[in-house]
Design goal:
Chain lengths: ~160, ~160, ~160
């Protein structure tokens, strides 16, 4: 694995959390490949093999739908909050060609409208990442949350 | 942008948090350029364009004053606490010559004198960083806190 | 200090937290050199020069014992929890030959069996790390916790 591949992968991780922490859902969508998918699931369900997930965007159209929901359908109907993500790469395995599988720890802090900060969720990202001329993209992201009972309801992707 | 420039920038970020977490205010001051400035402000005020800040050291003399306040004037008059900083670079943009603008997520944990740990604040650093023969220095740091209501009063810079 | 040395050191830090967060105690043990040792101590005791530690595995046999305790002796007798570690290197000093001394900030989050997440402890790792053909290994790790009163009892190493 080259350093350049790792740099592209880390830059993708950075773009992802920067997009969410600035509530730029178009930039979030742009971190996914055209055949990309996103699942956000509690570890309890993941380990039991139960498919019940908090979010399951299993094709690009559903990723696009999520952007529409957050920015248009739900806008103004939920109590807003500010997220702050941290991510640390734990493993990276070449899977042949331009494909890599990575695992990263994450924590998401949140600040409510009154200005109080707490831990929203923590867990691990399990990713299939594809490198390309336009930078790395997520072919598949599973956000597996240790947390099963978040201190507030979750609107934005993790 | 060269890898060497990024390494200098990341080393500066590391020196900064190492200085604060070991309460070495002289080392904190040394992370700033001779024309450096520091502002610590709540995001609520930052986004509203309100200049009200928790700390506003708009010239090097005020940075020096802050060191004096923390180490001499206030010393022994406040309930002390131990910080632990984490920082993750989100963006880095060359601004010409030796100047770079970076954005980094930060979290600061604190432990009180009874030994209990909590989250003090989280947010983002928006920095103007200048490279030089003595390593990178902060020309300007804005610590923009998501947190508006910290669980205790803040004595040390963030 | 070469970039390759730093990469080996960072890879060791990653293997360490990946081992603990997946409860793989054999992999945890494998991060230590054959003459490795591990101490987990509150900063209050560390700074006072008091040797009282939460864990003191001062030889490889005691490291092996800890693995046995966690995986066999204590198994099923404690309320389990899931950890999630974050680590950030603060300093790295060559000590001659293949030996390096590093300091890193750490935070450990935990999720209880009901699915609630909180901060378990934060602090700093003070390490003696030895490079070798099989990757970097811990010759000595001191996990110095800022936290003196964790929100639950600690079973797994930090």
């Amino acid at each position: 694995m080259t350093q350049e591949a790792l740099q592209q992968i880390d830059a993708l991780q950075t773009r992802y959390i920067a997009a969410l922490d600035s509530k730029d859902m178009a930039a979030w969508l742009d971190t996914f490949a055209s055949d990309g998918s996103y699942v956000c699931i509690a570890n309890e369900n993941e380990e039991s093999g139960l498919p019940l997930a908090l979010m399951m965007d299993d094709c690009h159209e559903r990723l696009e739908d999520r952007v529409t929901y957050v920015t248009k359908v739900w806008a103004g109907t939920f109590e807003d909050y500010q997220t702050r993500h941290f991510v640390q790469r734990i493993a990276c395995t070449p899977k042949g060609g331009d494909l890599y599988e990575t695992v990263s720890n994450f924590t998401v802090f949140y600040t409510d409208s009154a200005g109080n900060t707490g831990t929203l969720v923590c867990g691990r990202y399990v990713d299939q990442i594809v490198l390309g001329s336009g930078g790395a993209k997520l072919k598949s992201r599973r956000a597996v949350m240790d947390t099963n009972v978040a201190p507030r309801y979750i609107v934005y992707p993790i």
